[in-house]
Structures are given as structure tokens and as C-alpha cells.
């Protein structure tokens, strides 16, 4: 009896020490992410851009049977030029929009009067009391300032991408040498392959879907004559990478500008109903159909990850929340001690390797 009681006490002490050590490590990791944001954000962006380039170059090879070096050059050119154009549009129009935001604020009272007959006096009073107090110039600087910052870091990201592409083939050989024994090297390579597969699929599909959404939205904005249509289209493209709330914000901002810019309620309703319906259909039907179970993340985890990464890395963290959490889930799934956590993080309790036993062998 004494021996059993002692064993129970030892197990309790061991579990408490594990919880203590886990909390210490988690705290240090979060502090490191926060303190090292200036270094880690460009590096993380470069890794995701590198994944997109590899996915595009592999697609070029599959379609055209072109040599690897030509496919890599094509992928690098398309991705970096597209990324530069996105950052340039946002960066160049950020200052103009921030300067003209005061004009929109002065026209806000007229816009509120126009929607009085549509929604009633009570709602109008609520809108006036709550929105007039918002510093719209501050909001504009927060949203567009991140794009300007990324434009300043574009060349650093490009430098990282160049070295990552140069060491793409040599890196796998170095993993095998660093692992020591073949089994450990194979397990580590399998984990990296799973991360690469999931990220390539996520980044590729989300880029394609966001491009479709932004193109249709841009056509609507240009047809209506909305000011800064290019900025709103690029923001629509970028905000679709933010889960759940990104698509809502992508509709709200151009709709508010339309409400203030035009003297009629028509353009506002077209953007809200037209673009809102488009975002709803794509987000609830096309997006899940194309992504399928490749992410296999709990819906609650997606929201939790969005809040966490936004708190740690700001607006850029919101864009990166899903890819980073996918990487964490895959890493946990390959570590036996952390596999139960990965199961809790997943959507249905099944991990990717459970569905693909052939790839794990």
C-alpha cells in the first residue's frame, strides 16, 4: 500500500513538472516571437514566398516539361513581380488615401442622412454616435502602414528567397547528414514534405481564389467609379488570406467609401450585396471545395490562431496565422509526446498521415 501511494505521488510530481516545464517553454517562445518580430516576419514571409515559387515552378514543369532552372526562373519572376506590384499599389496610394480621409470624414454627415430613410432613425443615431468618434485616419494608417512597411522590406525578403532557392536541393542532403541515422533523417524529411505539401496547397489555392475575388471586385469598383479602386482590389486580395473576418473587412471599407463618395445609396448597396454575396459564396463553397481536408484544422483553432498571431505580430500575423498554425500542427503530429495535442487541434481527430499510409513508408 505504501509503495502504491508513493508511485501515485511520484506520477503526480512528474506530471506537475511536465506542466511547469511546458508553461516555461511556451512563455519563452511567445516572448521570443514578440521580441524577434522585426527579424522573424520577413523570414517567415520569405519562406511562404519560397513555397509559392516552388509550387508554381512544379506546375510549370508538369505542364510544359521545361527544365528545372527555367521553371524556377519563371516561378521567381511571376511571384516576385506580383508581390512587388501588390506592395507598390498599396504603398503608393497609402499616403494619398490617408491625406484625403479628412475629406471623407467631413462628408460623413451627409452619408448618414442618406441612409436614414433606409434603416430608420434609431439605427442612424447609433451609427452617428459610434462611427463619428472613430479616428478614420488612424485606421487608414494602421491598415496601409503595414503594406508600406512590407514594401520597405521587399528587397530583404527577395534576398532571403534567392538564398532559399539556391539551397533547395542541397538542404535535403544536409538533413540526412545532420540526422545521424537514416531513420531519423527519413522521419524529419517526411515532416518537411508534409509541411511543404500543406503550405503549397494552401498558398496556391488561396492565391487563386483571392485573385478571382479581387478581379471581380475590381471590375465592380471600376464600373461604379469608386475612388482608389486599385487599393480596394489589392486589399480584397490580401484580406482573403485572413480567416473569417478578412472577407467582411474587404467589403466594409469600399462600401463605406462608396456611401460617402456618391450622393445615392445605389453604389453602396451594389458593393454590400454584390461583393458580399461573392465573398459568401466563395468562402462557403469554392474555398472548402478546393482546399478540402488538406488543412484539417479545427474551426475554433482557426479563430484562436488568428487572435494569437495578430496579438504577437500585428496585422501581418493575421495574414500568416493559418500557415503558421498548419506548420505547428504538422510538427506536433510527428512528435509522439505532442501527437495528442495535434489530434485536438485537428478538425476530426484524424491526421494527414493517417489517411496517406503509403507516403509515410
Q: What's the arrangement of secondary structure elements?
A:
Blueprint: H1 2-35, H2 37-64, H3 68-106, H4 108-114, H5 116-119, H6 121-131, H7 136-152, H8 154-166, H9 168-179, H10 182-224, H11 229-239, H12 245-261, H13 266-291, H14 299-333, H15 339-345, H16 352-355, H17 357-360
Helix pairs in contact: 2-3, 2-8, 2-10, 2-14, 3-7, 3-11, 9-10, 10-11, 10-13, 10-14, 11-12, 12-13, 14-15
Describe this structure in words.
This is AI-2E family transporter. Its main location: membrane. The chain crosses the membrane at residues 23-56, 68-90, 138-163, 202-221, 233-259, 265-286, 298-316, 322-347. By secondary structure, the protein is mainly alpha-helical. The protein has one domain (36-360). It contains 17 helices and no strands. It has helices at 2-35, 37-64, 68-106, 108-114, 116-119, 121-131, 136-152, 154-166, 168-179, 182-224, 229-239, 245-261, 266-291, 299-333, 339-345, 352-355, 357-360. The protein is globular, with a radius of gyration of 24 Å. The two termini are 46 Å apart. The relative contact order is 0.09. Mean pLDDT is 76; it is low at 354-361.
Features:
361 residues; mainly alpha; 17 helices; globular
Quick structural summary:
The protein is built from 17 helices and no strands.
Number of helices: 17
Helix content: over 70%
Binned strand content: under 5%
Helices and strands: which structural class?
mainly alpha
Largest sheet: none
Low-confidence sequence ranges: 354-361
Order of helices and strands: HHHHHHHHHHHHHHHHH
Radius of gyration from CA coordinates: 24 Å
Cα-to-Cα separation, first versus last residue: 46 Å
Tell me, briefly, the overall form: globular
Number of domains: 1
- Rounded average pLDDT: 76
- Annotation, overall tally of beta strands: 0
Family: Belongs to the autoinducer-2 exporter (AI-2E) (TC 2.A.86) family.
Main location: membrane
Protein name: AI-2E family transporter
InterPro entries: AI-2E-like
Amino acid at each position: 500500500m505504501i509503495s502504491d501511494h508513493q508511485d501515485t505521488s511520484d506520477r503526480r510530481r512528474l506530471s506537475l513538472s511536465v506542466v511547469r516545464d511546458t508553461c516555461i517553454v511556451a512563455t519563452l517562445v511567445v516572448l521570443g516571437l514578440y521580441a524577434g518580430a522585426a527579424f522573424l516576419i520577413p523570414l517567415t514571409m520569405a519562406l511562404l514566398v519560397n513555397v509559392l515559387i516552388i509550387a508554381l515552378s512544379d506546375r510549370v514543369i508538369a505542364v510544359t516539361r521545361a527544365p528545372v532552372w527555367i521553371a524556377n526562373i519563371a516561378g521567381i519572376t511571376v511571384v516576385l513581380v506580383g508581390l512587388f506590384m501588390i506592395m507598390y499599389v498599396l504603398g503608393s496610394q497609402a499616403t494619398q488615401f490617408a491625406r484625403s480621409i479628412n475629406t471623407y470624414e467631413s462628408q460623413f454627415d451627409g452619408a448618414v442622412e442618406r441612409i436614414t430613410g433606409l434603416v430608420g432613425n434609431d439605427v442612424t443615431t447609433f451609427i452617428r454616435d459610434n462611427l463619428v468618434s472613430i479616428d478614420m485616419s488612424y485606421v487608414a494608417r494602421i491598415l496601409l502602414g503595414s503594406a508600406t512597411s512590407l514594401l520597405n522590406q521587399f528587397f530583404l525578403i527577395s534576398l532571403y528567397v534567392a538564398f532559399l532557392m539556391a539551397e533547395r536541393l542541397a538542404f535535403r542532403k544536409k538533413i540526412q547528414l545532420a540526422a545521424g541515422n537514416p531513420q531519423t533523417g527519413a522521419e524529419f524529411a517526411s515532416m518537411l514534405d508534409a509541411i511543404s505539401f500543406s503550405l503549397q496547397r494552401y498558398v496556391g489555392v488561396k492565391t487563386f481564389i483571392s485573385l478571382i475575388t479581387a478581379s471581380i471586385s475590381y471590375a465592380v469598383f471600376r464600373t461604379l467609379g469608386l475612388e482608389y479602386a486599385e487599393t480596394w482590389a489589392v486589399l480584397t486580395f490580401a484580406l482573403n488570406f485572413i480567416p473569417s473576418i478578412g472577407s467582411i473587412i474587404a467589403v466594409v471599407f469600399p462600401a463605406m467609401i462608396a456611401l460617402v463618395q456618391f450622393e445615392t445609396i445605389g453604389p453602396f448597396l451594389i458593393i454590400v450585396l454584390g461583393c458580399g454575396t461573392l465573398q459568401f459564396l466563395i468562402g462557403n463553397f469554392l474555398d472548402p471545395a478546393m482546399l478540402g481536408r488538406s488543412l484539417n484544422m479545427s474551426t475554433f483553432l482557426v479563430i484562436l490562431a488568428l487572435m494569437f498571431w495578430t496579438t504577437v505580430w500585428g496585422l501581418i500575423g493575421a495574414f500568416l496565422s493559418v500557415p503558421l498554425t498548419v506548420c505547428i500542427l504538422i510538427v506536433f503530429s510527428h512528435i509522439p509526446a505532442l501527437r495528442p495535442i495535434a489530434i485536438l487541434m485537428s478538425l476530426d481527430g484524424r491526421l494527414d498521415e493517417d489517411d496517406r499510409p503509403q507516403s509515410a513508408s
